[in-house]
């Protein structure tokens, strides 16, 4: 994973998150996908197609900046990179990590959400501190109620993906008619994983502490502007409209539901 020198794109006054999909990026898994008694596989598999836990991932073509942002769609390749390597979902840089753990944002009111934070699974990758206000302002599920939390333990749990029927009545090539359900959470180590085409990586959060994001921003000399973006000087070399430079994509993956 290497850094890219260009800043993140801004469209319609909004920062385009590192994990957001673009209109000219394409999920191209189906062309080479096979379904047989062993489960799902590609006719020719490359190392990046399958993770070390056995999960088979969507293949994507294109890259960040190709076309127009699809605000509510996630590029699974970049979601997988961000979640696997604990990179910021907004800028792709290193996520904030303090003595209380790694920073995540969750939607929901405190009273309802607090009970499910511990040992809950998350698809939204973590954040760096300067980018946290961007996500809080832009992501629909965070806009109304946002809980900042830090987790000391965050084991990889499983994937979100399309579950295929464990049968192949018309030859080995799976069609969309054989997809039983989309966006299903499936844990690593389960037999169901063989029939899943993964689109997002899930982590489980443990030893969770709810934190005061604004207090952390102030303590770090950062401030959220009225628009919720990090203020000028929030990070060396970063402008409010150029939050940071994303790392380049490493390998195909796939996904949905941004921010
Ligand atoms: Zn960031």
Textual characterization of the structure:
With 259 residues, this protein is an alpha+beta fold. It has one domain. The protein has helices at 76-85, 110-117, 132-138, 140-143, 213-219, and strands at residues 10-11, 14-15, 20-22, 26-27, 33-36, 39-42, 56-57, 60-61, 69-74, 97-98, 101-107, 121-122, 146-153, 156-164, 179-187, 196-204, 206-211. The strands form 6 sheets. Strands 7, 12, 14, 15 and 16 form a 5-stranded mixed beta sheet that branches. A 4-stranded antiparallel beta sheet has the order 10-11-13-17. Strands 1-2 form a two-stranded antiparallel sheet. The protein is globular, with a radius of gyration of 19 Å. Residues 1-5, 226-245 and 248-257 have low confidence and may be disordered. The structure holds zinc ion (ZN). Residues 88, 90-91, 93, 127-128, 131, 244 line the site of zinc ion (ZN).
Low-confidence stretches: 1-5, 226-245, 248-257
> SS-based structural class?
alpha+beta
Helix content bin: 10-25%
Query: What ligands are attached or bound here?
Result: zinc ion
